[in-house]
Amino acid sequence: MSDALLPVFSPASVLFDHGEGAWLVAANGERYLDFGAGIAVNALGYSHPHLVGALERQGRKLWHLSNVYRISEAERLAERLTAACFADVAFFANSGAEANECAIKIARRHHHAHGRPERWRIITFDGAFHGRTLATMAAGGNRKYLDGFGPPVDGFDQCPLEDIEAVRARVGPRTAALMIEPIQGESGIRPVSHGFLRQLRELCDERGLLLIFDEIQCGMARTGHLFAHQEAGVVPDIMSLAKGLGGGFPIGACLATRGAAFGMRPGAHGSTFGGNPLAGAVANAVLDIVMDDGVLAEIRRKSALLRGLPCRP
Ligand SMILES: Cc1ncc(COP(=O)(O)O)c(C=O)c1O
């Protein structure tokens, strides 16, 4: 690895030159069948012609527009994403961590705008990963990432997974929301039981809390459903997305119901690059493909084959 890079990664020595579908091709011509997919990012493989076409067309039109102007690609993406799930509104960012920052801000602001400014703490779960910004590291609560960076950002209380009584006991007068990955990614692809997700939803309804699903890794058709929570039949108030949403082009999104986003007025949040025309065009091209029922059914069929399970339609 070049000494000119901040040494925070220790990459494999192979140097890739390009990708074709599910294959990565090294500079020396060796071909690798890629099961890593950029850690759940290259959901449609490499150089997908529909995505390349969208990027090239948009690249000749407009790359960047400030959010002081309307961005038609972002508007279309927001309309399509919200029409496909529980949400009414979307905010676009450039990464997963930023999408989660927005989710955290929406949850805190919701209670503030309802006259409950003391409710700003968020319950998260053991084994979680929500990103590497200061707040999302604190939300994840992993000492390995937090050590050496000063006091963790305050406002996160961690609970064990699958233990609803522990969560009940943790909810206090300052709790604003619960935040969970329906399938934990970084801690080893650990699905959270649908029953536990349902219990969390019930607890939120009972105590006036918001439920945040981090679907950055498990969303965008990864489970054979557009969003993982749709298989569980449990609906959040706020959901973060990134990774597969851009098929490799950086984009994150935070989706919310209008009720949850109450309090997010002009000026409450922002991003220079979030929702730019290039990212919007590529993410719309990703949606053209993954929103197709046939594609989702094929993902479920292949998943069943790999797991050796009988295939469910
Ligand atoms: C569940 C989950 N949340 C958040 C993130 C952070 O996303 P990003 O690296 O794009 O900031 C990740 C990244 O691996 C993730 O898997």
Describe this entry's structure for a reader.
Helix 2 runs antiparallel to helix 10. This protein has one domain: Type I PLP-dependent aspartate aminotransferase-like (Major domain) (Aspartate Aminotransferase, domain 2), CATH 3.40.640. It has 313 residues and is an alpha/beta fold. The protein is globular and about 60 Å long. It has helices at 37-40, 49-59, 72-83, 96-113, 134-140, 143-146, 164-170, 194-207, 228-232, 277-290, 293-307; strands at 16-20, 23-26, 31-33, 89-93, 121-125, 156-159, 175-180, 183-184, 190-191, 210-214, 238-241, 252-256. Helix 9 (228-232) links the parallel strand 10 (210-214) and strand 11. It has a seven-stranded mixed β-sheet, with helices on both faces. The chain binds pyridoxal-5'-phosphate. Residues 95-97, 100, 129-131, 181, 185-186, 214, 216-217, 242 line the site of pyridoxal-5'-phosphate (PLP). InterPro entries: Aminotrans_3, Aminotrans_3_PPA_site, Class-III_PLP-dep_AT, PyrdxlP-dep_Trfase, PyrdxlP-dep_Trfase_major, PyrdxlP-dep_Trfase_small. It comes from Rhodospirillum rubrum (strain ATCC 11170 / ATH 1.1.1 / DSM 467 / LMG 4362 / NCIMB 8255 / S1). GO terms for molecular function: identical protein binding; N2-acetyl-L-ornithine:2-oxoglutarate 5-aminotransferase activity; pyridoxal phosphate binding. This is Acetylornithine aminotransferase.
The low-pLDDT segments are none
Bound molecules: pyridoxal-5'-phosphate
Q: Structurally, how many domains make up the residues?
A: 1
CATH class: Alpha Beta
Task: Predict the CATH topology.
Answer: Aspartate Aminotransferase, domain 2
Q: Over all CA atoms, what is the radius of gyration?
A: 20 Å
What average pLDDT do the residues reach?
96
What is the CA–CA distance across the termini?
45 Å
Classified in CATH, the superfamily is Type I PLP-dependent aspartate aminotransferase-like (Major domain)
- Please tell me what the overall shape is: globular
Largest sheet: 7 strands, mixed
Strand order of the largest sheet: 4-12-11-10-7-5-6
State the CATH architecture: 3-Layer(aba) Sandwich
- Tally the helices: 11
- Number of E strands: 12
Secondary-structure content class: alpha/beta
Order of H and E elements: EEEHHHEHEHHEHEEEHEHEEHH
